[in-house]
Design brief:
elongated, mainly alpha, single chain
Length: 117
């Protein structure tokens, strides 16, 4: 599951305001300075410190998040930069980064050191 797939899946799973806040957090991450690990911590805190009214919706939301977290965040160590860009839906950010400094920021966001590109 990619970030681009996670957000619409969450919208389908629940209309709870807590989940809407989670969706906003995920959408804002692409343009924030947070790394993938910081995103994971933020989402875990958001889900853990909030009350989703329906247990079934909570399970569905956490299951979707867990699939993304396990595949794209925990699994990124064995990925190429293109696989990471795809997982985190950052191809547009990469393409619009017209300087090496801009691309370095995107690489840092997904924990891909410059020497590996």
């Amino acid at each position: 599951m990619t970030l681009g797939e996670l957000v619409p899946a969450l919208r389908t799973a629940s209309s709870d305001r807590v989940v809407q806040g989670l969706i906003e957090l995920l959408e804002q991450w692409r343009s924030s300075p947070e790394t993938a690990d910081e995103l994971s911590q933020s989402v875990e805190r958001h889900i853990g410190n909030s009350w989703i009214a329906s247990d079934a919706e909570h399970k569905a939301v956490y299951s979707l998040w867990s699939a993304f977290r396990d595949q794209c965040i925990a699994g990124r160590g064995g990925m190429t930069i293109n696989e990471r860009l795809y997982c985190f839906d950052l191809f547009d950010a990469w393409d619009s980064a017209n300087t090496e400094e801009g691309r370095a920021i995107v690489r840092q966001k997904i924990d891909f050191v410059a020497s590996n590109h």
